[in-house]
Write a structure and sequence with these properties.
This protein has 21 helices and 14 strands. With 604 residues, the protein is mostly helical. The radius of gyration is 23 Å and the shape is globular.
């Protein structure tokens, strides 16, 4: 049996659909109570400005039994307010401020050497300082009173995204860590070359870090490793109600970024077993899909699939309202399952997951093989290959090399569309519970255009020194040509999609992660034209972030790509500010491209 197969297993640490989060009786009882509170608060306070997540984030200030007994049926507004004041503490009160010890103010030595504009540098210093505002530590009392908190205890400091997000999140953390990354010089990024263990390579990388917060970045990663060891995978976020799903798997990428910057081999050794466990989670039959191509070759790919078929506790009232349009309990359970699976994707929500957009009840996330998920897992497999070689696990390294090569062939066989010069999500037949092999059909590729169709070009930035890039030069030119003609690029960046459904991962919203993944891929295509195009996209994104910041004093979670300086809208919750990945991507772009003294940074 090969190494990958030996580590493969069914997902553990979270309930299968229908169970309680994490299988923890105390956590389940607490969530039942807080969902009652959430529901009664909606009834008492009304829907205007209502934030369902607020109520499941509140710690109990009294024994759960006493609080449950004291919650009156159908309370008035006054009764509900009195109950909250007596029996619950404010959301976020179980987090403590935690000044990061490695935050150098006003800026670290060697900060953004190519940013010559005074306005751009002053702003970048303010973004750098925001890491202090976003760093938290779980209060000591949480671990001793788990029955009163949905917040999970963590071993180290956490960097929260901001605003209503009062906990560590998985894929957000990648772009936070990226702000302390190794950024090689000139026109190319070769992470594996930069990550060589020789001292000269590490020193070359070390001089080009952005915020240089090595210890804080390591603590973020150690927290995520703790979640893997505790639950068998990285949770969506550090809350008990997130134990039923993960998020886009970028943990190995974070470990690589930190190793590239610091040469910390101990971190690699500590992370290695956890990375194998995470890979097992995504390679289990629960997520894995087998597809036979027209040449008869069978390929293994991966889909999102949450372990849940109830309303999401953090959005239960919203989910129940949407499910009220469905008549049968079976249909409602399937809807809840698809909603949670879409949340696992990070793209919650988008027409990308709907059979009949904009109808949310037609979500079919588990019927889709996503381009970006398989890109991230390919990257994970390459990272594990490298870490195994680095730590002397040569057999594992060879087997993960073979696994990654097989996935690359699968991605190009099943998802690549040579006519469109894009990678396309693949729709499975309606019977997604099939445990057999699906036959590939060209009509099953989703020809709608999403920013995710271009994410595999990101892999050009990560390959062994001297090895062949994921996307060769000729194919890269075609992808770039397709992106330019796609309609996604606007005044202020790349839109998530072309369809305006009122969902936040659709037009006209642009998101920092999507800008970064595509820009970094273009930078590493190897041509001056591709780098120039990448810099144009990055400049548009930096300008809209800067203009919005100057008008409002905050960084937003997302932006409207049609209007420079306008925050994004739509979705199931209000504007979020802070904001971890927006800050990290802007700093990364300023590090990569600089900002000349005479280049205008405000919208023209």
């Amino acid at each position: 049996m090969d190494v990958v197969a030996r580590h493969r297993r069914r997902p553990t640490g979270a309930a299968a659909p229908g169970g309680g989060p994490g299988g923890d009786d105390d956590a389940g009882a607490l969530l039942d109570l807080l969902q009652r509170v959430q529901s009664e608060a909606l009834r008492a306070f009304g829907p205007r400005g209502f934030d369902p997540k607020l109520y499941v984030d509140m710690p109990l200030a009294a024994d759960p039994g006493a609080a449950a007994a004291a919650l009156p049926p159908a309370p008035s507004r006054g009764e509900m307010g009195a109950f909250l004041r007596r029996y619950l503490a404010p959301a976020g009160s179980d987090l403590a401020a935690a000044d990061p010890p490695d935050l150098a103010l006003p800026e670290p030595r060697g900060f953004l050497p190519r940013v010559r504009s005074g306005a751009a540098r002053a702003w970048a210093r303010e973004l750098h300082a925001l890491w202090g505002n976003l760093t938290r530590r779980v209060a000591p009392g949480v671990a001793a009173a788990r029955h009163r908190h949905t917040l999970l205890p963590l071993p180290g400091r956490a960097v929260v995204p901001g605003s209503g997000y009062r906990e560590l999140y998985y894929w957000d953390s990648y772009w936070v860590v990226r702000s302390v990354r190794c950024v090689p010089p000139a026109t190319a990024i070769f992470a594996f070359a930069c990550a060589r263990p020789d001292r000269s390579a590490r020193d070359a990388c070390r001089g080009l870090l952005v915020s240089k917060m090595y210890e804080t970045a390591k603590e973020v990663v150690v927290n995520l490793l703790y979640l893997v060891e505790r639950y068998g995978f990285v949770l969506n976020g550090a809350r008990s109600y997130y134990t039923n799903r993960s998020q886009p798997p970028l943990l190995s990428s974070m470990v690589l970024e930190i190793y590239s910057a610091t040469g910390d081999l101990d971190l690699v050794k500590k992370a290695f077993p956890s990375l194998l466990k995470e890979h097992s989670f995504w390679m289990s039959d629960f997520h894995r899909v087998m597809v036979r191509d027209n040449q008869g070759q069978i390929h293994s790919l991966t889909r999102y699939q949450a372990m849940w078929n109830k309303p999401r506790p953090e959005s239960a009232t919203t989910d129940q309202q949407m499910a009220s349009k469905l008549s049968s309990e079976v249909d409602k359970e399937n809807f809840y399952h698809q909603v949670a699976s879409a949340a696992e994707s990070g793209w919650d929500f988008s027409s990308r997951w709907m059979r009949n957009p904009p109808d949310m009840t037609t979500l079919a996330t588990t019927s889709i093989i996503p381009v970006d998920l398989n890109t991230f897992i390919y990257k994970m497999e390459r990272d594990i290959e490298f870490f195994a070689e680095l730590t002397g696990e040569h057999i594992i390294s060879k087997e993960f090399s073979d696994t990654a090569k097989a996935r690359q062939i699968a991605i190009d066989s099943i998802l690549w569309n040579s006519e469109m010069e894009q990678w396309l999500d693949y729709w499975l037949p309606a019977d997604v519970q099939c445990q057999g092999v699906y036959q590939w059909n060209s009509k099953s590729q989703n020809r709608n255009i999403f920013a995710s169709n271009f994410v595999p070009i990101w892999l050009n930035a990560y390959h062994h020194s001297g090895s062949v890039k994921y996307v060769n030069e000729a194919k890269s030119k075609g992808v770039m040509r397709s992106l330019k003609a796609s309609g996604l690029l606007h005044m202020s960046g790349i839109a998530a999609s072309l369809l305006n459904t009122g969902q936040q991962w659709d037009f006209p919203n642009g998101w920092a992660p999507l800008q970064h993944l595509i820009v970094e891929g273009l930078v590493n295509c190897g041509s001056a034209e591709a780098r120039e195009f990448a810099e144009d996209i990055a400049s548009r994104w930096v300008r809209t972030n800067y203009t919005a910041y100057k008008a409002s004093g905050v960084m937003y979670e997302k932006y409207d790509v049609e209007v420079c300086g306008r925050s994004g809208g739509s979705g199931e919750y209000k504007h979020q500010t802070g904001f971890g990945w927006s800050n990290g991507v802007v700093l990364s772009f300023l590090e990569e491209f600089g900002w000349p003294r005479d280049k205008e940074i405000v919208c023209s």
